[in-house]
Amino acid sequence: MTETPLRDDIELEAKPLVIAGKRLEILCVKDLEPFIADLEQSEGDGVEGFPFWVKIWEASIVLTDRLLHMDLEKNQNILELGAGMGITGLFLGTFGYRVTVSDNNPDALALIRRNAAHNSIDNLRVAQLDWHHPEIRETFDTICGSELIYKKSDAKPVIEILLQKLAADGTVYLAHDISRMSMMHFLIEAEPHFDISHKGMSFSGGGKKKKIVIHTLKRKT
């Protein structure tokens, strides 16, 4: 698949981000005006058209920190699903893990590649993944994602991806803000297929405190 470069009208600025004692310089979108203009011209609903990938979500920071303190085996195959800015994949990559970072937005993928190059992370695979038509063939020992479910219709395709791409003894880690009520529908739909456990964690930053929940999913035996 041909790699699409980042749009010319997207201006970036570098921001430091430290997780698990490691500092990366993350190139972030400086001006959201082009995206606001796109939304105003779009005929779709706000959720469908919103560029979720332009923000570093608190849940991605909490998930990344959690995974990096779990001492995951370095030789396993990891997939970040709906990566957005790819924070989890970038940090896992810089710690030496073999990660495929996926999203369906070409600009998001282009920015992840820019950030990987900017931070000299050369063991990261960036792949386009449409939940409705997944083209990645292999399975993964660990699948992770942050703030994936924003509407009920997202639940079924995400569950299908997990069933198709998770290795038989693999584990899924999904993080979200506790206020994200659409995630409850996903958990209800996923329960027949997975054993699910939950861990609440706090995030403090920028003068605010949020409660983040990490769900751990294992295939039912």
Describe the overall structure:
The mean pLDDT is 90. The chain starts with 11 loop residues before the first strand and ends with a strand. It has one domain (12-219): Vaccinia Virus protein VP39 (Rossmann fold, 3-Layer(aba) Sandwich). The chain has seven helices and nine strands; from the N terminus they run ββαααβαβαββαβαββ. The chain is an alpha/beta fold and 221 residues long. It has helices at residues 33-41, 46-49, 58-68, 87-94, 106-118, 155-165, 182-190, and strands at 12-19, 22-29, 77-80, 98-103, 124-128, 140-146, 166-177, 194-205, 208-219. The protein has a seven-stranded mixed sheet. The longest helix is centred in the middle third of the chain and has 13 residues, at 106-118.
Q: What structural category characterises the helix and strand content?
A: alpha/beta
Classified by CATH, the class is Alpha Beta
Sheet with most strands: strand arrangement? 5-4-3-6-7-9-8
Number of domains: 1
By oligomeric state, this entry counts as: single chain
Which regions are unreliable across 5 or more consecutive residues at pLDDT < 50? none
The name of the CATH architecture is 3-Layer(aba) Sandwich
Helix proportion of residues, in percent? 25-40%
Beta-strand fraction estimate: 25-35%
Task: Set down the secondary structure blueprint.
Layout: E1 12-19, E2 22-29, H1 33-41, H2 46-49, H3 58-68, E3 77-80, H4 87-94, E4 98-103, H5 106-118, E5 124-128, E6 140-146, H6 155-165, E7 166-177, H7 182-190, E8 194-205, E9 208-219
Parallel strand pairs: 3-4, 3-6, 4-5, 6-7
Antiparallel strand pairs: 1-2, 7-9, 8-9
